[in-house]
Each structure stands twice: as structure tokens, then as C-alpha cells.
Design a protein that fits this description.
By secondary structure, the protein is mainly alpha-helical. Helix content is about 45%, strand content about 10%. Helix 5 crosses helix 6.
Length: about 180
């Protein structure tokens, strides 16, 4: 069941790479001995066909694609956290809700190495009330850093500065 999803994800990433390479930005001189880049901009574009001649095109930031694939179904596509319509049921089961990653959440209060660890290795809870699976089977450290960079857009400037300070302090005490 996971194999088609993984193959589809890899195919999508490959297509994004191909689409971002545009040969129109390469200049060749008259004698074809000199090739130079005039303007090479790598900006991945995702184009999805909905059928009936409907297509959606979007430019993805680094981290956005992986956030949308692995994080957004729980944490929200705008970092808003668990859907409000599901909160009551979650709480009635004695479980905690999925936290937002935007300015209303607390992600910005944690050092970057801890966030990378949470993304790659998950978050365990002995009571299974607040468990998050790890994604090291699909993501590497750079992917996790890209996701964190992507979600920073939802934080205030003060929150970003605070998170940088917390990260510096953490690294000073613990190393990388």
C-alpha cells in the first residue's frame, strides 16, 4: 500500500526537478563553441491535472512539498493544527489535540535540533496520548530543516528571533 505512494512521491519530485530546468535560459554563440548561462532560476513548479482541462500550478518553496506530504494532514496546511471539528472527539477520548505550527502554537519555543529530531524520530508518549510517528524512512536531516524553514513563515518576527536564540543556547550547551 505504501509502495505506490512512495513511487508517486518520487515521480512527483522528479517531475518538479525536470520542470524547473528551462533550456530557454541557456545562450549558445553562433559558432556553438561557447555555452553560457544567461539567467538560470530554479523555481520548482507543480502542475496537477484535475481532468476536464483543469490544471493547478503552484510554485513550491523548499520544505513546502514535504510539509504538505507528511505534516499538513495533522498539523494543517497553514499550520493551524488539528481541525476544530475533530477536537471535541479527541478530547472525549482523553487524548491531546495536534498542536499548530503557526504563531498560535508552541513550535517556535523549541530549538531547531529538537524539531529535527521530532520530525525524523517522532514523539513518544508512554500513555499514547500524544504520539507522532517519525519520518526518517522518507526524510533526511536537510528535508527536516527545509520543513522547519517553511513553517517559520507562520511565526512572528519576535517568535523567529526567540527561536534562533533558543537554538543558539541549545547548541552552546549540547553541541549540534
Amino acid at each position: 500500500m505504501k509502495t505506490p505512494f512512495i513511487i508517486g512521491s518520487l515521480l512527483l519530485i522528479f517531475i518538479l526537478i525536470l520542470v524547473s530546468c528551462d533550456s530557454d535560459n541557456v545562450a549558445v554563440s553562433d559558432d556553438a563553441s561557447e555555452v553560457r548561462n544567461t539567467q538560470l532560476t530554479v523555481e520548482p513548479t507543480l502542475s496537477l491535472s484535475l481532468g476536464d482541462d483543469q490544471t493547478i500550478e503552484t510554485t513550491a518553496q523548499p520544505g513546502e512539498l514535504n510539509y504538505n506530504l507528511y505534516c499538513a494532514h495533522c498539523h494543517g496546511y497553514d499550520g493551524e493544527g488539528q481541525l476544530a471539528t475533530t477536537v471535541e472527539n479527541t478530547r472525549s477520548l482523553g487524548m491531546k489535540t495536534v498542536p499548530p505550527h503557526n504563531a498560535d502554537g508552541h513550535t517556535w519555543e523549541h530549538a531547531t535540533p529538537l524539531l529535527v529530531d521530532a520530525i525524523l524520530n517522532g514523539i513518544d508518549n508512554p500513555l499514547n496520548h500524544y504520539v507522532m510517528s517519525g519520518f526518517s524512512h522518507a526524510l533526511n536531516e536537510q528535508d527536516a530543516l527545509d520543513i522547519i524553514d517553511y513553517i517559520r513563515q507562520w511565526w512572528t518576527e519576535d517568535q523567529r528571533e526567540y527561536q534562533q536564540e533558543v537554538t543558539r543556547n541549545y547548541v552552546d550547551v549540547n553541541g549540534d
